[in-house]
Write a structure and sequence with these properties.
homodimer; 26% helix; alpha+beta
Chain lengths: 77, 77
């Protein structure tokens, strides 16, 4: 099964994008949802994956999809 | 069946996002792909839907997901 990680920060833009994306994404992809505002220990992992802003979806092929714009990653530190 | 429209302009960011999104999106959603660089007559439709930049996915509930950033809509006119 393919995996993806959806990083967000609980902002309205994030919540809306999360709902839309989870509705769109096929059941064949397992999506882990990470709230970077609550789990700051995962900020380095997100940054290393190339996440510049939230919400963002990181795919298991290494590609990052930044979806709309809620907050910059620096604003979450 | 749900419908969505993926607007793009043939840019590398657009092509990459298109591939990723089409791979992710469930078969239950029919996605129309529109190349705004080639079909400029559909620019007003995209703008009215709220598309500010490409690539972008417009859902049939009216929400717009701007995915990464290839070009501003004004650059396509």
């Amino acid at each position: 099964m393919k995996k993806a990680v959806f990083y967000h920060a609980g902002c309205p833009v994030c919540v809306s994008a999360e709902q839309e994306m989870l509705n769109l994404i096929t059941d064949k992809v397992e999506v882990e949802v990470v709230h970077l505002g609550e789990v700051k220990s995962r900020l380095p992992e997100a940054e290393n994956a190339g996440v510049k802003s939230v919400p963002a979806l990181v795919l298991d092929n290494g590609h990052v999809l930044h979806i709309n714009y809620g907050a910059g990653i620096a604003d979450l530190k």
